[in-house]
Design a protein that fits this description.
Length: 190
């Protein structure tokens, strides 16, 4: 899909807080809707560390009025959401919101190592099935250490959009702000 940069008025960003693998407390995930470059809505949900499938949690976090109204023109997902063994079925997210998705990460994912790890955990086959349903081609963002994965958007449009949204650093500004907010939240409210 080709995207007119001027038509991107609402962007939904997903990011997660910092977790400790030793205490296994729930981790905060956020959904942040930006209109142009301003934060408009913020949603927070706590989920277990490394859930088998984060997709439903992400979808349920966003109020129905945004899901059904086609107001969201782009979804940006931080690598923190898909770090560790938590997985998201990008095709389900795309079909629910009917919009393009870009996943951004600081380094190219080592899919081979992840697949080896999944062989040794109880629900590894289910996680692998979700990962296998996602696109496989990570593209390096020019003049950046970032890698991006695109769903329902051409690689060229994706790279132009990332460049258009970058202001301070490597991440597009809405996703950079979402990451800062997510990392500032406590691990849980025990």
């Amino acid at each position: 899909m080709l995207i007119n940069l001027q038509s991107i008025n609402r962007i939904l960003c997903f990011a997660s807080g910092i977790t400790s693998l030793t205490d296994r407390k729930p981790v905060a995930i956020i959904g942040a809707i930006f209109q142009t470059q301003s934060l408009e809505h913020l949603f927070v949900k706590y989920v277990p560390v490394d859930p088998v499938d984060l997709t439903r949690s992400l979808i349920e976090m966003v109020p129905e009025k945004f899901v059904q109204s086609s107001q969201i023109k782009l979804i940006l997902i931080s690598n923190t959401i898909m770090a560790g063994l938590g997985v998201v079925k990008l095709s389900k997210l795309q079909s629910t919101f009917q919009t393009s998705i870009i996943v951004l990460t600081n380094k190219k994912p080592d899919v081979e190592s992840l697949e080896k790890t999944l062989k040794h955990i109880e629900d590894g086959e289910q996680r692998k099935s979700i990962l296998d349903s996602n696109p496989k081609t990570w593209i390096q963002v020019p003049n950046s250490r970032m890698w991006a994965l695109n769903v329902d958007i051409t690689s060229d449009s994706m790279l132009k959009l990332i460049s258009y949204l970058q202001q301070h650093g490597n991440y597009p500004e809405p996703l950079r702000i979402a990451n800062i907010i997510a990392r500032s939240l406590p691990n849980s409210f025990d």
